[in-house]
Amino acid sequence: MTSYVLTVSCKSTRGIVAAISSYLADKGCNIVDSSQFDDLDTGKFFTRVSFISEEGVPLAELKEGFEPISKRFAMDAEIHDGNARMKVLLMVSRFGHCLNDLLYRWKIGALPIDIVGVVSNHFDYQKVVVNHDIPFHHIKVTKENKLQ
């Protein structure tokens, strides 16, 4: 069984979800999680669909077969290997509760990501980050560069 993730953004219109789910069903795939959002202010549609292929349909075949749907709805669409670990750069402020939670989940294996570094405008959590063998990067913020 192979897992994949499809992300889509495009102009909101009728039939997008039906086209996606029909395509996946035709390929022998099963949707295990789906989230969608229509931004009424911009008229854009966004979705993230996690699905599995019990038959092990290759990623390249899924991408190629999805092209006609992507073109029909002028989608910005990507299909990723659901088992691939994402490289993540964390940014932390002076309050570290979220950083501590993310590091804990990462350390116990509940977050399948590769943390490539932590960036902060404070040194408060440098020791915590370095103790996890993660590179720490400080970016000095001053009145002159704060708006950047």
UniProtKB/TrEMBL annotation:
InterPro entries in alphabetical order: ACT-like_dom_sf, ACT_dom, Formyl_transf_N_sf, PurU, PurU_ACT
An annotated GO BP: 'de novo' IMP biosynthetic process
Which GO molecular function annotations are given, in alphabetical order?
formyltetrahydrofolate deformylase activity
Q: Which residues form the ACT domain?
A: 5-93
- What is the designated name of this protein? 4B1
* Lineage summary: Bacteria, Pseudomonadati, Pseudomonadota, Alphaproteobacteria, Hyphomicrobiales
